[in-house]
Design a protein that fits this description.
- The complex is a heterotrimer of chains A (432), B (336) and C (252).
- In chain A, 77% of the residues lie in helices and 0% in strands.
- Chain A is mostly helical.
- In chain A, 46% of the residues are buried.
- Chain B is an all-alpha fold.
- Chain B contains 14 helices and 2 strands.
- In chain B, α2 packs across α9 and α11 packs across α12.
- Chain B is globular.
- A 6-stranded mixed β-sheet of chain C has the order 6-7-8-3-9-10, sandwiched between helices. Chain C has a 4-stranded antiparallel β-sheet with strand order 2-1-4-5, with helices on one face.
- The termini of chain C are far apart.
- The N terminus of chain C is likely disordered.
- The chains are: A mainly alpha (432), B mainly alpha (336), C alpha/beta (252).
- At the A-B interface, α7, α15 and α18 of A face α4, α11 and α14 of B.
């Protein structure tokens, strides 16, 4: 009971911190932190399922999050009919040929016994040539269609909320490929493999302009909530805002952010509920038994690799959903901004700080670390300014220090990680 | 004549850059594999260690340049490299004392050490960006080429030129010297042998009176030297940018794993396998093929298998194939 | 490995004739909270062979490890040539002249035979070639294979490397944990012969053996442990003749 009180208190403190931002800075900022906090908590939840339940070390979270972002574009943007006419079908056929080649090569590797290497490489080479012959002209044609505004195939034009489950599916697919390769080997290998796939996913999203305009970004994604401008022109909304003593501009902005917040909270609660239920189910108990003693579990006839694959896919899917939600919130997909320190290692910090193995801990860590991440930068700048106040304003050192203050948060996060790992390895809310 | 031109083009665009890049990866992978062999964890801070050592080298190089000291035709960075190695070694030893030693004493699971190395990576990354900034730095000075394409053409009368940069020459020479010294150390000296013994069988090493702390200390010093040299060579050859060094983690780990984690010889082989795969797959073969096929049949496309943006995908693909087919690597590494 | 190979111990007065050179006295303790040893006493005289035998789970290896300092004793003490070494780490005991050959993983598999021997002598700063020569004389096959990786050798040869490695420190006591586990009977006889030879050079031998009968045949003193306690103690011949030991333990 006291443990529960302590945990509730921890959550109260975190929300009080966010509330303090509301009172001291602005409610807009507080809601921005809250919304990203919700998304971060969801990501941390996904990672905690992998690490906390099963001890799987995934450092490619960024890739799964980015796939969620890609899903929003593919689901919600209107299709570019001209581009489809120019080469849409051909690209799809090319991709099918590519996938077929790999599948055939894998099959051949398992089936053929004589001159296996030769057969497989012939399949790969021939398949690759056909693939490129189909693919290159199609891409060129698509990217030539109004490159300033589109130059890509567009999406399916479906409601953007549908992109969230789609993001989960895309991430799950990538996780399946990785899991099939690297699970069952030593844990470091999974780490390297996930690190690699994340880099590749980002590279694809940056360079395949026909898919998502690459570094030209896709802006103006449809929103699941009304636009501020529309709200401000709605006389009923304006009247209600004035009733509450808010000017319509502020009110509209708060309204939009709150709507997002509620939607994200609903998703978080659903996923949390499912995660908690599964953890208490026989499946969850088996998962933890495997984590605590893999050898014994294997000896008892448990298919460890299979179970690991399941949890790895599930956790990655949650990260994908969160990634789709994040891109929806941003309203644009900017592949150039995905950065492993922010989208992989920060999430890890959330899980470790919160308490690995405990879903509530992961959520708490998500909010707390996100809050710190946002607030450490202004604090660092303030600190540097105080420290350098004595220097002459045009000193080069001072300018350099003030300019570099932004990097202080990397250090802060690293120190936080090491401190928690060393002195409180079970995190703020330890596993029960 | 055309075959000759094709060979020269191949040398110029594939072999020479591949050898230089392979040497850099091999040195990086040696550091990773050494720490893995002795401390038994994958050190994710290795990329940032390379960046740190390189940063120190650059800062000292700037100081020397400001003082008007140079190494003539060679890059000034070669003069400051030894000092940078010492600084990096001190930093790594301090890190070991503050961070890793505790987990070693408590015999923590390797994954805990990996996570700790992530924390160290964060901090190093922040320190580097704080000191030198996240931008790109070029610090190569001295003469640029051992032989330029034009000189080569004038010498041989061929249509294709072969250019070898000074930095490429230095990379290869230094890599050979460093690897030779490392293998001499590991195979011929008492301390080196004790490190191999410790990596092979920790308990038996203890029974033989080998001092684990000493072995660990030497391992960090060697890792610092290898990382700094690899980082400086890469920076001289291309340029220094903190994020690029972080990204080098993937090909470096791929090299170490492909060769067999914990196996120094494998790390070198792995480095060259990864480097040559990257270069050949991302090179546009149009020119080479153009010389080889009869006139009129020259390819119209670039004949580039993958755009250079996907070079990481190459190391990754090789890594995946090796993990699937032979998880212990080409040379048998430590499996646990 | 003649007498001059042993470090001289003039500062420590030799104990009374009845007190063994190495003695683990009334040892009680285990790896965790549960005791495995209960007041167990093990000792060996200079240049003699002591063998610990007993059923599975009797704590034979544990008793040996306790003597070597690989677990904490709650009660009891360990004396080496009259000196109390209970508080020393295994590494410190190596420096004191004790050598230990573990049952498994007892060679550096990736290193050559010669390098294995060199590593055995790691603590020594003097010329080790003479000792290495003695090891090669004791195990001639190792000389042939000295450039080969120890991991490539047969089981029996590996055991020879393991014993050779331990001898390289010029120990006064050699401790062997089941040296004949997993080797053929012929190799076992050969190994026992070598062990007797080692003991003749003045080195005390303490070993745990699964092959009780053969081991007791070469033992100067034997300890039968049952559930962490001394059940029977005597010379090898006495124990082999003891009807109780024969019936309960040696199988008739």
């Amino acid at each position: 009971m006291t443990g529960n009180m302590r945990n509730i208190l921890l959550f109260v403190i975190v929300f009080a911190l966010i509330g303090a931002v509301g009172f001291l800075q602005s409610w807009n900022v507080a809601l921005v932190i809250l919304n990203m906090g919700l998304i971060s908590a969801l990501m941390a939840l996904g990672v905690n399922m992998q690490w906390g339940y099963a001890g799987l070390f995934n450092i490619g979270i960024m890739g799964f999050v980015a796939l969620g972002g890609l899903a929003t574009v593919l689901t919600s943007m209107p299709p570019v009919t001209e581009a489809w006419a120019a080469g849409g079908l051909r690209v799809l056929v090319a991709l099918a040929v590519g996938a077929g080649t790999i599948a055939l090569a894998v099959r051949a590797w398992h089936r053929v016994s004589r001159r296996r290497g030769l057969v497989v490489s012939t399949i790969v080479v021939v398949g690759f040539i056909i693939y490129r012959w189909l693919f290159d002209p199609a891409v060129e044609a698509i990217e030539a269609v109004n490159p300033a505004a589109t130059g890509y195939l567009g999406g399916l034009g479906l409601p953007v909320v549908l992109a969230w489950p789609v993001g989960g599916l895309l991430a799950a697919g990538a996780a399946w490929i990785i899991g099939k390769t690297a699970l069952g080997l030593r844990s470091d290998y999974l780490a390297i493999a996930t690190l690699g796939i994340a880099e590749i996913i980002i590279a694809v999203m940056k360079n395949e302009d026909w898919l998502d305009r690459g570094v030209k970004n896709v802006v103006g994604l449809p929103r699941p909530v009304p636009y501020e401008v529309d709200l401000q022109q709605d006389p009923e909304f304006v009247a209600r805002a004035l009733e509450l003593g808010l000017d319509p501009a502020t009110a509209s902005s708060l309204y939009v952010k709150l709507s997002y917040g509620i939607m994200f909270a609903v998703v978080l609660v659903i996923v949390l509920l499912m995660a908690e239920l599964s953890l208490r189910s026989p499946w969850g108990r088996m998962m933890r038994a495997i984590r605590d003693n893999e050898v014994a579990a294997e000896a008892m006839g448990k298919d460890v690799t299979r179970r690991h694959l399941e949890i790895f896919i599930l956790g990655s899917a949650v990260c994908g959903i969160a990634g789709a939600m994040m891109t929806t919130l941003d309203g644009q997909l900017t592949p150039g901004t995905y950065n492993p320190l922010r989208y992989t290692f920060l999430i890890w910090l959330m899980v470790i700080v919160g308490g690995s193995g405990n879903n509530w801990g992961a959520i708490l860590g998500g909010f707390l670390v996100w809050f710190l991440w946002v607030e450490v930068e202004p604090m660092g700048r303030w600190l540097i300014e105080v420290l350098t106040a004595g220097m002459s304003p045009d000193s080069a050192l001072r300018a350099h220090l003030v300019e570099s203050a932004a990097h202080m948060r990397l250090m802060t996060m690293g120190v936080l990680l090491l401190l928690v790992l060393r002195f409180s390895p079970r995190g703020l809310i330890p596993e029960k | 004549m055309d075959v000759l031109n094709a060979i020269v083009a191949l040398l110029n665009y594939v072999v020479v850059p591949g050898v230089a890049y392979g040497s850099q990866l091999a040195l990086g992978a040696l550091g990773v594999t050494l720490i893995f062999g002795i401390l038994r964890f994958s050190n994710f801070a290795h990329g940032d260690t390379m960046a740190f050592g390189t940063m120190v080298t650059i800062l000292l190089t700037w100081a020397l340049q400001a003082a008007g000291i140079s190494a003539g035709p060679l890059p000034t960075a070669l003069l400051t490299l030894p000092v940078a190695i010492v600084v990096t070694a001190v930093v790594l030893l301090a890190t070991d004392r503050v961070v890793y030693r505790f987990y070693r004493r408590t015999r923590a699971a390797p994954i805990t050490l990996v996570i700790a190395s992530l924390g160290v990576m964060f901090i190093m990354n922040g320190v580097i960006r704080f000191i030198i900034g996240p931008g790109e730095q070029n610090f190569a000075d001295g003469s640029r080429f051992i032989i330029t394409a034009r000189q080569f053409k004038a010498m041989t009368g061929l249509r294709e030129g072969l250019a070898i940069k000074v930095t490429q020459g230095i990379t290869v020479v230094l890599a050979i010297v460093v690897v030779a010294a490392l293998f001499w150390f590991l195979n011929r000296t008492r301390t080196g042998k004790s490190m191999r013994a410790y990596a092979d069988n920790e308990d038996l090493a203890l029974l033989s009176g080998i001092n684990p702390e000493r072995v660990v200390t030497v391992a960090w010093v060697l890792a610092a030297a290898l990382a700094t040299i690899a980082g400086v060579l890469y920076g001289l050859d291309k340029s220094f940018k903190p994020f690029t060094y972080f990204q080098l983690l993937l090909p470096i780990f791929a090299s170490a794993i492909v060769g067999g984690l914990g196996n120094p010889l494998g790390a070198i082989a792995g480095g060259f396998v990864i480097a040559f795969s990257e270069v050949t797959v991302t090179y546009a073969w149009k020119k080479v093929v153009g010389y080889l096929v009869p006139e009129g049949l020259e390819p119209s496309g670039l004949l580039q298998l993958l755009s250079t943006d996907y070079k990481f995908a190459v190391s990754f693909a090789i890594l995946v194939v090796v993990l699937l087919v032979r998880p212990t690597g080409l040379f048998r590494g430590q499996s646990s | 490995m003649t007498t001059e190979a042993r470090p001289a111990t003039p500062t420590v007065a030799p104990g009374p004739a009845t007190e063994p050179f190495l003695l683990g006295e009334e040892m009680t303790g285990g790896y965790g909270p549960v005791d495995i040893l209960h007041g167990c006493t093990i000792g060996v005289e200079r240049g003699q062979i002591a063998v610990i035998v007993g059923p599975n789970g009797a704590g034979k290896s544990t008793a040996m490890k306790a003597v070597f300092g690989m677990l904490n004793l709650r009660v009891g003490r360990v004396l080496l040539d009259g000196e109390d070494i209970t508080g020393l780490t295994p590494q410190a005991r190596v420096a004191k002249g004790m050598a230990f050959v573990p049952q498994t993983n007892n060679v550096f598999t990736s290193m050559t035979v010669e390098e294995n021997l060199e590593m055995g002598a790691f603590l020594r700063r003097d010329d080790i070639s003479e000792t290495m020569e003695q090891v090669y004389e004791l195990f001639p096959v190792l000389r042939e294979k000295r450039r080969q990786a120890a991991g490539e050798l047969s089981g029996g040869q590996r055991q020879q490397v393991a014993v050779g490695r331990a001898l390289m420190t010029r120990p006064t006591v050699l401790m062997l944990d089941e040296p004949t586990a997993g080797v053929s009977p012929i190799v076992m006889d050969e190994l026992f012969d070598r062990i007797i030879e080692v003991a003749r050079t003045g080195i005390s031998i303490l070993m745990v053996e699964q092959n009780a009968r053969q081991a007791l045949e070469i033992a100067d003193v034997g300890y039968v442990l049952v559930q962490g306690r001394n059940a029977h103690t005597g010379t090898g011949a006495e124990l082999l003749a003891d009807p109780e030991v024969r019936r309960t333990f040696l199988g008739g």
